[in-house]
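Same chain as my last thread, 413 residues:
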Amino acid sequence: MIIRLQLWARLFCVEALRALGRHKLRTGLTALGMMIGVAAVIWVVAIGSAGAARAEAELHKLGDNLVWVEAGSRNVAGARTGSHGTTTLTPEDADAIRHEMSLIKSVAENVDGTFQVAFGNRNWNARYRGVSPEYLEIKRWQMEEGAFFTDKQTQDSDSVVVIGETVRKQLFGATDPIGQIVRVHGFLFQVIGVLAAKGQSSSGQDQDDTLMMPWTTAQKKIQGKGYNYLDDILCSAVSIEAVNPAVDAITALMRQRHHIHPGEEDDFNIRRPDEVIKAQIQTSKTLELLLVSLASISLLVGGIGIMNVMLASVAQRTAEIGLRLAVGATQGAVQLQFLGEAVMLSLFGGLFGVLLSLGGAFLIEDLLGWPIAIPLDAALFAVGFSVVVGIFFGFYPARHASRLDPIAALRNE
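reply #2:
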């Protein structure tokens, strides 16, 4: 039994490789088709995985189970309204959510806009945010240097600011910004901290081009005396499962507080930014599946090429096949040898395809600007699929060779 297995292994591997080695150019061109197909499948999976990972990173940056209450209706008379210029949210609304909503664990008031900030002879137009200390936790933002302002500084409307990385570079360069004084709207503010860099958002906005201060300070010193409204209220639900129930509960609470009757439009809107990115992730995965299916067609085309080459090989080696059968070779042995040639073609094509995908990954990474990693499971799947294709398309030529009539085959010589 062991001897028979050794003979089969020799036929399947050694003899197959010898036969393929006699026609190196033809073998190389045939394997090339499989190689490109395998590389295409791996690249598609790698790019899809990188895109999904990028979207998931953006999802994490959005916030901790974020529920975003925005002033103004999202659609009034067919036109989208923004939060600025509307006076539908108040600090009392934020307090009501904070104290009455058990599904919400953190609440941050928000007042925002754009202004010019100056330091020495430098100035920069930046987006400011007047927020409460809970903002950092809700938005999952870290500090790079210094500290964020405290509840007491918020209550006292202190003139302190925390700046983003872009603002730091534009205003201070290599100078340490902590403790420096900047001028905003004719008021002097002390820089007490620098936010960790976050990069661009999914919409392409530079999240580091920002300056944060207590929301009470923004209301009194930036918005002006008598301004007592909020642009947004940012909330963090206790869990991802609690987000949708929290949205419904906040909607009911706000309608009650704003005396909105049944059938009337809300004067606020509640957004879930994570839904957009989750939809992007799902779309990315669906597109990846579609592209993998299309890339797999190239493997099938490579398999057809293997079948054509093997049929040509059988036609060229008819006398050899007839001689083998005449001296006692079994049909199974002949079939095994030719099937081995088809499998070796697809296997080597698959392995070289993996090497090609590894080399091409660096080029794709440079073009997209994303970190591209070749998934091991994708490489194994592509090589395995190429072997299956080789077996499938090599079976008919191998069976055809094994069923040749020895006398007719030798007469063909």
